UniProtKB/TrEMBL annotation:
Biased composition (Low complexity): 114-127
Source taxonomy: Bacteria, Bacillati, Chloroflexota, Ardenticatenia, Candidatus Promineifilales
This protein's UniProt keywords: Metal-binding, Zinc, Zinc-finger
Top-level taxon in the UniProt lineage: Bacteria
Keyword Transcription among record annotations: no
Official protein name in the record: SWIM-type domain-containing protein
Residue ranges annotated for the SWIM-type domain, each copy included: 66-97
One Gene Ontology term of the molecular function aspect: zinc ion binding
Region feature Disordered, mapped onto this chain: 105-128
Amino acid sequence: MSVVTNDRRLLTPEQIAGLAPDHATLRGARELAGGDNWLSSGYHHSDGRRLLWAEFPESRRPATQTAITLPTLRAACHCAALRFPCRHVVALLLRDDAGRLEPAQPPPWAAGLTRARSAATKPAAPATDDRRRAALLAGMADLHLWLADLTRHGLADLPRRDRRFWNDMADRLAGSYAVEAARELRELALIPGSGPHWPERLLPRLGRLALLAEACRHLDDLPPGERGDVLAAAGRPPRPADDLVADDPVADDWLIVGRRQDTVNRQHRERVWLHGLASGRWALLSDTYTIGRREGVYLPAGATVGGELAFLPSAAPLAARAAADLQLCPTSPGEQPVAGDLDQAIAAYAAALAANPWLRVYPLALAHVTLEPPATAASTWRVRDGGGRWLPLPPRFAHGWRLLALTGGRPMTLFGEWDGATFTPLSVYWDGWRALAGWRGLP
């Protein structure tokens, strides 16, 4: 039997499909879910939780073991997939939804897989956390000197510089936990010599990085919210238990509106955007982990979770941490955040950016918008509202034609991230929320 509470599903097939990080994973999951060569599978109810498990045969390796606990959606798998959730996790949820799992006593390894994460994610001890903060500030002090040297020597010879000139400093930053500053530096390395006006594109971002390094030198002089924003911009989000004071936790039912995964230097980054159905607040849950991680909690677009979120200190709070495990709630297909037109969305972004100048991305829910394909080979897709205002989409956006096919060109509600230059759609509301990540891309 599939996961149903009061005749309302905790997860719909569309939401399960939205967990897949890419189209290949979703295709493989559907093939697995429809196959009959599973070695074992089942489910077990205990203490209000539902444990799903399965074993999948492998030709030259031990069987792949997969386990999931509901309603927390904590999943673990032994496969060698580079991205997670893997096809085995998605296939197990799809088979459960189809009612193809039988009740049984779980094998010992199944409960052990999902318990392992709890033991592995205990909060860092205060002394360890203090050392990490000291290392981050030392790394940013090194960046301050490095940028001063770069400025003295000028920009003219940067196109001839070896990539190691940038990467060595970026590696030092990453080693000191300043992972966001390191990522920015690696992106800047691609600009010199990349076009006729590359200095105009490089200088503002170098200046922003220099301002961040300077802010780290005066961290203790900043108000708690601004201090939290500086730490997060460098790469170490403050924790609610820090000396920085966060708001009281917010209890709500949270609609998961969008998820995004990307990979930089063998580090996966995942962002999950939530919207409080009662509070109306946006919240961002983020995680960074190395390639090869086999476990985690993964929340699909369109699902609803209940629980408390503690917002991290910020002048414009978005980033949050779950105070305890979030619990899946029965899904209502009509649930969606308040979406507005482009003027309202950009005004909200401008207010947040004024409060937090380090803000990199901001959630936008856009109602009654349509897509326009590129007019020329050099242009990009656009999203346009009824008043004729528009935002550009990323140059390599690959889901435009599928969105047009889904909607027939009619107005829709889109959710995505705005970085000040481009809008990246993550999900569409069309008979419920649909994540775009598992769609097959088209040029």
